[in-house]
């Protein structure tokens, strides 16, 4: 029998029972958030294209906050810079947990979602650049089609198929999380116009204090929240997008428990507390303020979709994501010892790659950073992101629904628990 070090790894294997159970809980929370996100986007679109569109614009542009601290921002900016920091804080917690205590601490398991995420960003970016060569400032939007919206994608996944293999669902979740990390890295390096090193350096002080307290398992909100807010404000003033503060704060939270029997680790505790706020409030509110573009009827829609920027975004999301994720996964299976799990087919990989083409939250955010809110190009980006995400969802639905009946039968067989220990026997057969 081959040793664990020489046994070929299985791509999209189901993983361990604790990890599968935890992912199922996350998927349920993100599904609810995805439904609310869709509702927020639809309400914004309808309102922005109604006779009362001016009231929507007035609400979106309403300025609140202390001017003395340079935080007199519009509600739309508060949603993009403030609320999305909560979203990225949860993403930072989740990513750190995956690589410290989750199944992805095994480099062989981590290689797949990382490689797939890189492919799912590189190919859409290349497609966008090809559409906009010679377009001057239009190339600033190269990163728009590189993002996957985890809440939106998971919501669609829950609607179209509830019986996909656990390993495939875990892959989508982890891919989206790695994608978020890469996206926020792109934002920090490529969409920072003016960097104030003094403010960035000062931000390290409350961040270090926050890290000191959480490393000692301090959970008192009245100590941690002010430090987090000061860190966020200083990062915002530095010129780096303020959502980076959320990722940094998430990364310093410890994952491992101090001792067995101590209960959930601090990262797990924070994730449990903040995920409902992120999925149920932060992302839907951002969608409400970001998706309200005035289309201008069929003529306006036609004009928007003829823009090379919009065509690059749509093609990148629908074609680029599918080709990039599937292609890099195939390369991993072809040139390494990794093999596709026995119960899956490459059709499943293609369907899941199409689903990853739903790029909403971060794509809209990058569009605003690239072209500026309210510009013609930004409006075209919003139309393109909505159109591309809808097409990706529809294509993924067609592919994955064809496989749903097969997986329902497999799922029913996997629930056998002959030893009555509460863990399905399929998780106790020594799978890699």
UniProtKB/TrEMBL annotation:
Keywords: Antiport, Cell membrane, Ion transport, Membrane, Sodium, Sodium transport, Transmembrane, Transmembrane helix, Transport. It comes from the Bacteria. The keyword Transport applies. It is found in: Cell inner membrane; Cell membrane. The chain crosses the membrane at residues 31-49, 69-90, 110-133, 139-160, 172-191, 197-214, 221-254, 274-298, 310-332, 352-371, 383-402. Pfam families: Na_H_antiport_1 (PF06965). It is a multi-pass membrane protein. Its main location: membrane. It catalyses: Na(+)(in) + 2 H(+)(out) = Na(+)(out) + 2 H(+)(in). Belongs to the NhaA Na(+)/H(+) (TC 2.A.33) antiporter family. Na(+)/H(+) antiporter that extrudes sodium in exchange for external protons. This is Na(+)/H(+) antiporter NhaA. It comes from Nocardioides marinquilinus.
């Amino acid at each position: 029998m081959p040793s664990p070090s020489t046994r070929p790894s299985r791509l999209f294997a189901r993983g361990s029972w604790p990890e599968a159970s935890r992912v199922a809980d996350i998927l349920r929370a993100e599904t609810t958030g995805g439904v609310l996100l869709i509702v927020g986007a639809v309400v914004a679109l309808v309102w922005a294209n109604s006779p009362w569109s001016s009231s929507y614009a007035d609400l979106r542009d309403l300025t609140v906050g202390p001017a003395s601290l340079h935080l007199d921002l519009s509600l739309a900016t508060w949603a993009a810079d403030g609320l999305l920091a909560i979203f990225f804080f949860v993403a930072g917690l989740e990513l750190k947990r995956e690589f410290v205590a989750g199944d992805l601490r095994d480099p062989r398991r981590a290689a797949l979602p990382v490689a797939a995420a890189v492919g799912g960003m590189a190919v859409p970016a290349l497609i966008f650049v090809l559409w906009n060569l010679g377009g001057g400032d239009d190339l600033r939007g190269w990163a728009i089609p590189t993002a996957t919206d985890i809440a939106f994608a998971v919501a669609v996944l829950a609607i179209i198929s509830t019986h996909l293999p656990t390993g495939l669902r875990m892959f989508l979740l982890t891919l989206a999380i790695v994608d978020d990390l890469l996206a926020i890295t792109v934002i920090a390096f490529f969409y920072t116009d003016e960097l104030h090193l003094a403010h960035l350096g000062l931000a390290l002080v409350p961040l270090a204090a926050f890290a000191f307290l959480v490393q000692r398992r301090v959970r008192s909100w009245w100590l941690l929240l002010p430090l987090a807010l000061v860190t966020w404000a200083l990062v915002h003033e530095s010129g780096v997008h303020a959502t980076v503060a959320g990722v940094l704060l998430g990364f310093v939270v410890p994952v491992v428990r101090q001792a067995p029997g101590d209960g959930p680790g601090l990262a797990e505790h924070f994730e449990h507390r903040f995920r409902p706020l992120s999925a149920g409030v932060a992302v839907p509110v951002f969608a409400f303020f970001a998706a309200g573009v005035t289309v201008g009827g069929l003529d306006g829609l036609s004009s928007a979709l003829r823009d090379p920027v919009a065509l690059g975004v749509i093609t990148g999301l629908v074609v680029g994501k599918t080709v990039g994720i599937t292609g890099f996964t195939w390369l991993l299976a072809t040139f390494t010892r990794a093999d596709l799990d026995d119960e899956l087919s490459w059709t499943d990989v293609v369907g899941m790659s199409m689903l990853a083409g739903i790029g909403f939250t971060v794509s809209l955010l990058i569009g605003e950073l690239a072209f500026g809110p309210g510009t013609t190009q930004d409006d075209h980006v919003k139309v393109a992101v909505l159109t591309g995400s809808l097409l990706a969802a529809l294509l993924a639905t067609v592919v994955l629904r064809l496989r749903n009946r097969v997986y329902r039968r497999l799922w029913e067989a996997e629930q056998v628990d002959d030893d009555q220990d509460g863990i399905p026997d399929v998780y106790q057969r020594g799978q890699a």
